[in-house]
Design a protein that fits this description.
With about 220 residues, this protein is an alpha+beta fold. It has 8 helices and 5 strands.
Length: about 220
Amino acid sequence: MENGAQPPDEAGPGASPGSEQVAAWLRANPSFLAERPELYRLLTPPRRIHGEGLADHMAAMIQAERTATQDLAASARAEDGFVRRTQQAVLALIAAPDPEEAVAHEWPALLGLEHCTLAGEGIPAAHRRHLPAGTVRALLPTGRDTLLRDQPADAPLLHGEAAALIARDALARIPLPAGAPLMLVLGAREASALPRSGAGPQLRFLAAALAARLQPA
């Protein structure tokens, strides 16, 4: 235990095994909860206790709940924004004469991202990152269609010159019926531009739209 705190000899009413040690440790480390306000959301408020100490604890619990609500609202806004941007990107793809060029040059602005490209293991082509054999399977093994990563270690391979600017990237398998494995690679300078919550369906939607455009008529 920190600060050499020793548990008291007796536990209070209804104490579970180890509760006296927890109580002793908190007494020896009174700033623990103040430094971790998110824990207040997990605590049951005390009752029939009055005074400034209780008021401080209740205020901390209220602040923790308010912070959690704000975080949830921000997450919902980011998710909604990504949905709208995805729809705009697909509309641009439908009208584009060259789908791979549209991904490389139009999608970054439409999706609010730093870098967008296709990456595959087949014959090198314009507007497409060429990957060593087995790369797509290693990143997106069977059963996984999408992947979001923070500070990806292989950013130079997937994002080229934009690698140093990528805080979060997203990968999505292009569901083509035949040919070498191919995936969509998106890179964001700000992680919030690729929200973790709700990103999977949007990534699969983008990949499906690309698959439809890339298949021969």
